[in-house]
Design a protein that fits this description.
The chain is 55% helix and 16% strand. The chain is an alpha+beta fold. α2 runs antiparallel to α5. It has a four-stranded antiparallel beta sheet with strand order 1-2-3-4, with no helix packed on it. The relative contact order is 0.10.
Length: 215
């Protein structure tokens, strides 16, 4: 094609040559696109496969350490290392590895919060329908976001507390719903956390955290 003198071509021949060049370029783009999409599909499939296995391993480890820690705690109580049957915090050290088990009380809600959440969702839907901005109304979006539940299906105490701050933005019905939320805040749950530490050659204990953020 480099030996072709374009000046000597007729208008029809130039049009045919241009069409051929465009077809070659189009075919090249298609091939590159298909190759990219195939690589993308393979890559994301491998990521999904490994993430799925990793999540299953982490869930399995969490269930295992809960069961084994509880069993070992009972052994400690029998041996006399735990001061009272209510004591849930303890540390186990062996060699250069240490496990800390810490229990803390976290604020939660009883069943009345579920009723309040249902009422609030209905209220917000009616509010959204009456608003000029509809679903784009920032107050509606904020309130709906604060009603989102965590992975355990529970309402977040801090998020619900922020809903209280919006009482002056709405009417008495909203205030009544907030009162129901406040009355439901009478239950405390015990959250148990596990912390792992390893002592380095310098003798300093460092926390071992299986998290991307700590690597």
């Amino acid at each position: 094609m480099s030996g072709i003198n374009v000046k000597n071509l007729t208008a029809e021949e130039k049009a045919a040559l241009l069409a051929e060049l465009q077809a070659d370029a189009s075919n090249s783009r298609i091939q590159k696109r298909e190759a990219y999409e195939a690589l993308r599909s393979q890559f994301i499939h491998e990521v999904q496969e490994k993430v799925t296995l990793l999540v299953a391993d982490v869930k399995g480890f969490h269930s295992w350490i809960e069961k084994e820690t509880k069993a070992f705690s009972e052994t400690m109580k029998e041996y006399g290392q735990v001061k009272s049957t209510d004591q849930l915090n303890f540390t186990i050290t062996d060699g250069n590895f240490k496990l800390e088990v810490k229990a803390s009380k976290v604020k939660a809600f009883d069943e009345r919060a579920d009723l309040a959440a249902e009422r609030l969702i209905d209220y917000l839907k009616r509010y959204m329908q009456q608003s000029e901005k509809g679903a784009d109304d920032p107050m509606y979006q904020m309130a709906m976001t604060l009603l989102e539940r965590n992975k355990m299906g529970d309402l977040d105490y801090k998020s619900i507390s922020k809903l209280y701050e919006l009482e002056d933005k709405f009417d008495q019905e909203y205030a009544d719903i907030m009162t129901l939320f406040k009355e439901s805040n009478q239950v405390q749950k015990t959250a148990i956390n596990y912390y792992f530490h390893e002592r380095g050659e310098d003798g300093i204990w460092r926390r071992v955290e299986p998290s991307f953020c700590r690597m």
